[in-house]
Specification:
By secondary structure, the chain is an all-beta fold. 0% of the residues lie in helices and 64% in strands. β4 (50-59) and β5 form a beta hairpin.
Length: 188
Amino acid sequence: GNFSVGGGQSRTRNGQTSSQANLRWGATLGQVSLNAGVEWSLRGADDRGRLLYMSASVPLGTNRRLGASTRASGDQYRSSFNLREQVSDTLGYRLSGSHDSHDPALLPSVGVSWLAPFSQVQLDYSKTGDSARTLAANLRGGALGHAQGITLAPYSIQDTFALIEVGDLHGVKVDTPSGPVWTDRQGR
């Protein structure tokens, strides 16, 4: 595992200073990941006292993980859990829930991600209060202009990239450092 100790001091424009210190521990035991820590506000206007946190993540099969975490400061706490599964190269989901000391009711959240041949689609739904709900949709990808036209990709185009051409074969899967991609109708 690993262990770290840290601290810092900050000063605002009007001369107020604040100091913080922290201890962190993390370990992987087999496939189980564990993390714990404590943070202190030593002095200053933003004195929050002590914050404790713990988290654990365990595998439930090959592509599924269950995680849980809790944070506590004084008499306030927040606990959460999440279940993630990568069903295939192109489909994954997340189920999670959280509650805190202000509202002990479980607040659920669901997310689905789909890796389409030319974009990544993420849909998320969460309940954030008694009558508050959030629905979000995210579409990401990249487009590369070249002499033969435009080729779309499910990942953003970075400084280093490659355009692969396999004749006119459509739907050929290619594993890349960013993840899998598939050739388009032009074989690119």
